[in-house]
Amino acid sequence: MVNAQGSLMSFNNFFSIAPDRELSVFFAVYAQCDPNLIGIPFQITINSSTSTIPFANTSHVSYFGDEKEEILFSMNSILCIGAIKPIDETT
C-alpha cells in the first residue's frame, strides 16, 4: 500500500465510511485480530460540488442509527491515494 501513494484505487463493491476517526480506527485495529485481515482506515476528502462519485449519508438506516454518521459510496468508485500513515499503536 505504501508504494501506491499518489496512484488511484478502485473499489468494485459498495464502500462504507464512518467520518468519525475513532470509529474508523477501531474497525481497522479490530481487523488485526484476524491474521488473514488487514485493517486500513482511509481519510477521504470530497468536494461535493464537483464530485462525480455517487454517495449518500445512510445514518438513518445504519446499524448505529443516527448516533454515528455513515456514508455509503457506490460501486466502482475511484479515489486518489494521498498520504499514507501507519495506525498509531496507542489509539
Account of the protein in words:
With 91 residues, the protein is α+β, with helices and mostly antiparallel strands. It has one domain. It is 12% helix and 19% strand. The chain has one helix and five strands. The protein has one helix at 21-31, and strands at residues 8-11, 15-17, 55-57, 71-73, 77-80. The strands form two sheets. The chain has a three-stranded antiparallel beta sheet, with no helix packed on it. Strands 1-5 form a two-stranded antiparallel sheet. The mean pLDDT is 77.
* Average pLDDT, all residues: 77
Note the run of SSEs as H and E.
EEHEEE
Which strand order spans the largest sheet, edge to edge or round the barrel? 2-4-3
Q: Which class do the helix and strand fractions yield?
A: alpha+beta
State which percent range the strand residues make up.
15-25%
Radius of gyration: 14 Å
Question: How many domains would you count in the coordinates?
Answer: 1
Number of strands: 5
Low-confidence stretches: none
Chain oligomer state: single chain
Helical content (DSSP H or I, runs of 4+):
10-25%
Global outline: globular
The main pleated sheet reads as:
3 strands, antiparallel
What's the tally of helices?
A: 1
Beginning-to-end CA distance, first to last residue: 21 Å
Quick tags:
two-stranded antiparallel ribbon; 5 strands; 91 residues; 1 helix; alpha+beta; single chain
